[in-house]
Hints:
Largest sheet: 8 strands, antiparallel
Structural class: mainly beta
CATH topology: Jelly Rolls
Mean pLDDT: 96
Protein name: Pectin degradation protein
CATH architecture: Sandwich
CATH superfamily: Jelly Rolls
Pfam family, one: Cupin_2
Order of helices and strands: EEEEEEEE
Distance between the termini: 12 Å
CATH class: Mainly Beta
Domain Cupin type-2: 28-81
Helix content: under 10%
Number of domains: 1
Number of strands: 8
Strand content: over 45%
Shape: globular
Low-confidence stretches: none
Amino acid sequence: MAYPVTYPDRGVARQVLAESPELMLVSVRFEEGAEGALHSHPHVQASYCASGRFRFRLGGAEHELRAGDSLMIPSGVEHGCLCLEAGELIDSFTPRRDDFL
């Protein structure tokens, strides 16, 4: 099944790649300077940097991700990112983010 590309924020394109009630895989492409606004959710999230460079804020700490790096985001922890170089994150969520469908 092909899922539509959505544009949740300026310079951000998101597409669900696969999903089941227990797990969801999502591609999120960012233009340089685009932001993933600070937010939290009950899902556990893993983010893999497929390309580009990102500065993540996770709780009170900052982490820089480059291609090949990954980051775990626990349930309920506030997080967001700034895209330093255009690129793509591959995010997984457990359970599925029904709000993305």
